[in-house]
Design brief:
Layout: E1 7-18, E2 21-32, E3 36-40, H1 47-54, E4 62-67, E5 70-72, H2 77-82, E6 85-88, H3 100-104, E7 111-112, E8 116-117, H4 119-132, H5 148-161, E9 166-170, H6 178-193, E10 197-201, H7 205-211, E11 214-219, E12 222-228, H8 234-242, E13 260-270, E14 276-286, E15 290-294, H9 301-308, E16 316-321, E17 324-325, H10 331-336, E18 339-342, H11 346-350, H12 357-362, E19 370-371, E20 374-375, H13 377-390, H14 407-419, E21 425-429, H15 437-452, E22 456-461, H16 464-470, E23 473-478, E24 481-487, H17 492-497
Parallel strand pairs: 3-10, 3-11, 6-9, 9-10, 15-22, 15-23, 18-21, 21-22
Antiparallel strand pairs: 1-2, 1-4, 4-5, 7-8, 11-12, 13-14, 13-16, 16-17, 19-20, 23-24
């Protein structure tokens, strides 16, 4: 390797204290320019806190930040932007009712003669950015009409448009398709060649090894490894992260399936402008069975789960729970019949961020604690603590707001909330999205344990390793239809080929 790239920003003795927790404990961190600085660690290890400090969102309790050898203090995010720092948060910070162009230029709109916004210039620059990111997205499209992967691309475009010298990418690929990931990697290579320093946070370890130049591992607010990426492999990263090289989720006992608990017949959801988002899908799940629903983004998997939860009134077809028709027309009715959904976007659809952990856990099952005209609060608190222990949710107190938890622990709260309704079938949409390898293993162990207790589980995932390791049966969806049905231990190549049944061999990705 040639001479090491220069250090553009460092943190020395970084300490960050929140009420009841020390998120960073004396962290020394160097960010090299013209390189990808990979940051890994379990949920709650302090990665996001460290990035928020660099981006001016949070202030250090102790320690200092240096840029180009001089101490700096960012008053807020705008101040950090002035110093050339851009950040793409894992949870998207965009306005669904504004257009793509308006989102990219919000707060720094080009003006004509100091009077009005130059919308044509906005559109022109947005088109150029979309071309650079190889996306066919019209600048005038309202953001809310884009799927989540495209919204993530818009968030990245917004950061790239600010010509940041330092760019922080927090889980940038969690919602992207394989093709979009390749495009992002090309953009990263281009930014690197221009001398931009990139901090890259991801739970996809293979991705980190491919894209990273330097790696820093955080564990419980302390750095447990920092080095050049040369010679780093997945076992090294896992050992530094959790002190344990368990990456697999093997079965401990042979599965025993019961009777069919859920069946869908000919489910159809028409698409605006013709065709079907869900195209005559039929499937069934037995008690104790984990069925993986695999496919690329846009295959119709999430929409199928939404149909089961009565979120699309114009969908057609029939559902059965334990052989009896499911006729209830609303979400509450379907929950009463034993169906529970863990949504893909836990922040927006799964939790009420300002409410306590206890309140979030019991939200869907308040009937259990209703005594005549009031809630039995002690029974509610006892049951909530029971679920906290059962799912090993790391909490200082169940009365803290759920927003104070790491992503992995928030996901466990969503699972707990679903389980409290006593479901017969559990629907899980991307259960491991945005959570680290340790939390992922715990969520998967929980899924296995629930299945062994007789719960039927239908889970959607875009992660091939996950669907192969966890499923008793794999169904593949593409273009709204089921295009493959495979037993446990299926061949990975066969599963992947079923995701593109109509693609011609010469077609572009």
């Amino acid at each position: 390797m040639s001479a090491e790239p220069p250090i553009g920003l460092s943190i020395r003795g970084g300490v960050k204290v929140y009420p009841g927790t020390r998120a960073l404990k004396g962290v020394d961190f160097d960010l090299r320019m013209g390189a990808v600085n990979v940051l890994v660690g379990e949920n709650g290890a302090g990665k996001s806190t460290l990035m928020k400090v660099i981006a001016g969102v949070e202030d250090l309790t102790e320690g200092r930040i240096e840029m180009d050898g001089r101490e700096v203090r960012f008053r807020d995010k705008a101040d950090a932007v002035k110093h050339g720092i851009g950040i793409v948060f894992q949870e998207l910070n965009l306005f669904p009712n504004l257009t793509v162009a308006e989102n990219i230029f919000i707060g720094r709109e080009p003006v004509r003669g100091g009077i009005d916004i130059d919308r044509e210039a906005q559109r022109r620059e947005t088109r150029a950015l979309m071309q650079r990111l190889e996306q066919d997205i019209d600048p005038d499209t309202p953001l809310g009409l884009l799927r989540i992967g495209q919204q993530q691309i818009v968030e990245i475009a917004k950061a790239v448009a600010q010509d940041a010298r330092i760019l922080i990418l927090d889980e940038p690929t969690s919602a992207l398709s394989a093709h979009e990931v390749e495009v992002l990697f090309r953009v990263i290579a281009e930014l690197k060649s221009q001398g931009v320093g990139i901090v890259y946070i991801s739970h996809r370890l293979e991705e980190l090894i491919r894209v990273g130049d330097y790696i820093t591992v955080l564990r419980d607010g302390t750095i447990t490894g920092a080095r050049s990426m040369e010679g780093v492999d997945i076992p090294w990263i896992v050992r530094a992260m959790i002190g344990d090289s368990s990456k697999d989720f093997p079965r401990t006992e042979a599965p025993a399936f019961g009777a069919e608990v859920f069946r869908a017949e000919e489910i159809t959801l028409p698409r605006e402008g013709g065709g079907y988002t869900v195209d005559h899908v039929s499937l069934s799940v037995r008690a104790g069975e984990i069925v993986g629903l695999y496919g690329l983004m846009g295959a119709g998997r999430t929409e199928f789960l939404e149909c089961i939860m009565a979120q699309h009134p114009h969908a057609t077809g029939r559902f059965f729970v334990e052989g009896k028709p499911l006729t209830e027309r609303d979400v509450a009715g379907r929950i009463d019949r034993g169906i529970a959904l863990i949504p893909e976007d836990r922040k927006r659809d799964g939790l009420v961020q300002i409410m306590a952990i206890r309140e979030n856990l019991t939200l869907s099952a308040l009937k259990r604690f209703t005594r005549a005209f009031h809630l039995d609060l002690s029974a509610e608190a006892t049951t909530a603590m029971d679920f906290v222990k059962r799912l090993t949710i790391k909490v200082a107190s169940p009365e803290n707001p759920v927003s104070s938890l790491s992503g992995g622990n928030q996901q466990k709260v969503v699972i707990g909330k679903a389980l409290m309704t006593g479901p017969k079938i559990l629907l899980m949409d991307e259960p491991s999205r945005g959570i680290d390898i340790g939390a992922k293993a715990e969520v998967f162990r929980t899924m296995r344990r629930l299945a062994s207790e007789g719960l039927g589980i239908l889970f959607v995932t875009s992660d091939l390793d996950e669907v192969l390791a966890l499923s008793d049966r794999i169904l593949v969806m593409a273009n709204g239809r089921v295009t493959g049905d495979f037993p446990a231990g299926a061949d990975a190549a066969a599963v992947i080929s079923a995701t593109a049944p109509t693609a011609s061999k010469g077609a572009a990705a």
